[in-house]
Specification:
The chain has 229 residues and is α/β, with parallel strands linked by helices. It has a single domain, classed as Rossmann fold (3-Layer(aba) Sandwich), CATH 3.40.50.410. Helix content is 43%, strand content 18%. The protein is built from 6 helices and 6 strands. The protein has a 6-stranded mixed sheet, with helices on both faces. The two termini are 15 Å apart. The C terminus is likely disordered.
Length: 229
């Protein structure tokens, strides 16, 4: 799998209305310096990474994954780029050093996702994007369509998971992104029973962890399909 984990890091992530609830062996202590929404994201992401990496180990390590993480507010930064070797603990430790500040720009984030995906494309890997935000912004439908069509043109349709962390009041753009991805995936894929392009809402830290675990299960199913092919 070729993962692009795209996470919101604007000032709203400082919000302490949601705080990390779960503790797991190996989780870097620095995560709990973020007693806010961003800390919740780090814990949920850790559980996701741990799950997919354990799945890889259970298969004898044959399915080698690559992880990129794009953090965005009004701008973007890529603290993890096409990493194939770090553990989930090491990846989360890197992300725990990030600051949260600034505004919101979905379109700039999509541009960065497209750049990371195309630059690091591997025909043997299924591209997966997880796009998380707790804020609102307008999205250029053409950019989203272009991202998905680029993946198809390169050889594989894009699996896209949009996550709204908090109220759904301003989730319209995230819903639209998942809808566009689903339409293009359905057009490009053959004999697919379940399209891995989904919008999810998580109201609190526990629900966010559940969403990430559901995505991990969806990814596992995709991997099985790829193996069968």
């Amino acid at each position: 799998m070729l993962y692009s984990l795209t996470q919101f890091r604007s000032s709203s992530m400082w919000g302490q209305d949601k705080v990390p609830q779960s503790h797991f062996p190996g989780l870097p202590p620095a995560v709990f310096l973020h007693k806010n929404r961003y800390g919740c994201v780090l814990v949920a992401l850790y559980r996701f990474l741990k799950t997919v990496q354990m799945e890889r180990v259970s298969q004898g390590g044959a399915a080698r994954d690559a992880f990129s993480c794009i953090l965005f507010n009004s701008n973007t930064t890529v603290p993890i780029l096409h990493d194939e070797g770090k553990s989930s603990e090491e990846l989360i430790k890197i992300l725990s050093k990030a600051s949260v500040e600034g505004g919101t720009n979905f379109n700039r984030a999509l541009d960065e996702v497209a750049s990371v995906m195309t630059t690091n494309w591997n025909a043997k890997r299924q591209p997966v994007v997880i796009f998380l935000s707790d804020g609102e912004d307008q999205v250029n439908a053409g950019k989203m369509r272009g991202l998905c069509e680029s993946a198809v043109n390169l050889g594989k349709p894009l699996a896209f998971y949009a996550i709204s962390f908090g109220t759904e009041t301003y989730s319209g753009s995230l819903r639209d992104m998942a809808r566009i991805a689903r339409q293009i995936y359905q057009t490009a894929a053959v004999n697919v029973s379940k399209v891995p392009c989904v919008y999810n809402n998580a109201l609190d830290a526990v629900q966010l962890e559940d969403v990430f675990l559901d995505i991990a299960e969806s990814v596992r199913s995709q991997r099985a399909t790829l193996v069968l092919k």
